[in-house]
Amino acid sequence: GIVQDVTDRRVAEDRIRHLANFDSLTGLPNRRQLVWRMERAIEHARRLGHACAFLLIDLDRFKIINDTLGHAAGDELLMEVALRLKGCVREADTVARIGGDEFVVLLRALDTHAGCAAQQAMGVAEKIRLRLAECYVLQAAAGVAPIEHRCTASIGVALFQGHAESQDSL
Length: 170
Description:
It is a single chain. The protein has helices spanning 7-21, 31-48, 62-69, 71-87, 116-133, and strands at 51-59, 94-99, 102-110, 136-138, 147-149, 153-160. The protein is an alpha+beta fold. The strands form two sheets. Strands 2-3-1-6 form a four-stranded antiparallel β-sheet, with helices on both faces. Helix 3 packs across helix 4. The longest helix is centred in the first third of the chain and has 18 residues, at 31-48. It starts with 6 loop residues before the first helix and ends in a 10-residue tail after the last strand.
């Protein structure tokens, strides 16, 4: 018989799979992974009669941070935003980075009674807005004192079985 160690090959394949589905800076799911998760969430919600919500989050004036403090500070801010977003949602929910300074939060299995899903989604959106507005301490460059920065975000909310019925329309 022949024995062959495929550990390195397996590790490389896993790494490639991870890079294809997750953002390399924040470690969050990327657009491709988000679309897959949205489709599963919609199927699940349709089958069980739940609602789900999608929050599109765009950081306001992010370009100014990159232009004045540099890309390293911008990356630092994006990583901190990712951590704060993950802290605002349940384990079953998804936080994804879909590009630049845009994030999406997928809230699964919301209550469908008497507008509760909309209230739940708006409650999470407000929690996110307040958490993201808290002060950030960014390192502008090596040898330069850290800079305190405040960041605001624009948040749009769409509901499955409320605003739209498909992943594309949401």
